[in-house]
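Request: Have a read of the protein record below and say how the chain folds.
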Amino acid sequence: MKKQFFTKSGFISITLLAALQAAPAIVSADVSSNVSASSNYLFRGVTQTDGAAAVQGGLD
């Protein structure tokens, strides 16, 4: 389970880095991004991931 999680998060990280490096060549704009991993995502005290890990990302 952990190996699968780290494989997915590694793939996502590499994909985001490649996209961000290509972005300045295409568009000249301010872009920021973030990626986070958590052991269990809670919203108002209720688990949203059924106790599993969650990977979240954002692009502004």
Notes: The longest helix spans residues 2-26. Strands lie at 33-38, 42-43, 46-47, 54-59. The mean pLDDT is 76.
